[in-house]
Amino acid sequence: MRVDDPTFENFVAQRLPALYRYAMVLTQNRHDAEDLVQEALTRTGLRWSAVRRKDSPEAYVRTAMIRIMANRWRRPRREVSVAAPPETVAEDLGLARLLDDAGVRSRVAELPPRTRAVLVLRYVEERSDEEIARLLGCSRSSVKSQASRGLARLREAVDRTEVDHG
């Protein structure tokens, strides 16, 4: 081990806030976000000797989070989620920057989990449709349709907000 290699504890201490924020975007629920981060870090900790040598251990943890979420979606659901779109979206501004706005975050939170994950992976993580499809265990066309529907719902919310406040 090189002297400048972070220990797992140091990695967690340094990156936990960012990982938690990422989990909140994915789950939109404090308890689910905490569970997701814990499960992803537990899996990472078991493989830390290999993970710490990767270019980006944080990317490894984020990918683990996406895979955990995808596995949860494949299981039969016990609870029903309510879906509705975000307040503003401008694709060219980047969803990552827009997520700093509380109104946008609340609208994104109302999107179905799979649609939310597609938008986060595409516009925040800047992953290709092929990568997203592989991570979520679906087809590339499914990724495209989820992204299209999600953005359409965000745009509808923008239009409704402008009419309500205009």
The level of helicity is over 70%
Q: Which structural class is indicated by helix and strand composition?
A: mainly alpha
* Tally of individual domains: 2
Number of strands: 0
CATH topology of the largest domain: Arc Repressor Mutant, subunit A
Task: Give the tags.
Rna Polymerase Sigma Factor, Chain: A, 9 helices, disordered N terminus, 2 domains, mainly alpha, about 170 residues, Arc Repressor Mutant, subunit A, about 0% strand
Plain-language structure description:
- The protein has 166 residues and is mostly helical.
- It folds into two domains: 1-78, Orthogonal Bundle (Rna Polymerase Sigma Factor, Chain: A); 81-166, Arc Repressor Mutant, subunit A.
- The protein has helices at residues 8-27, 30-46, 48-51, 57-74, 95-98, 102-109, 113-124, 129-136, 140-165.
- The longest helix has 26 residues, at 140-165.
- It is globular.
- Residues 1-5 and 77-93 have low confidence and may be disordered.
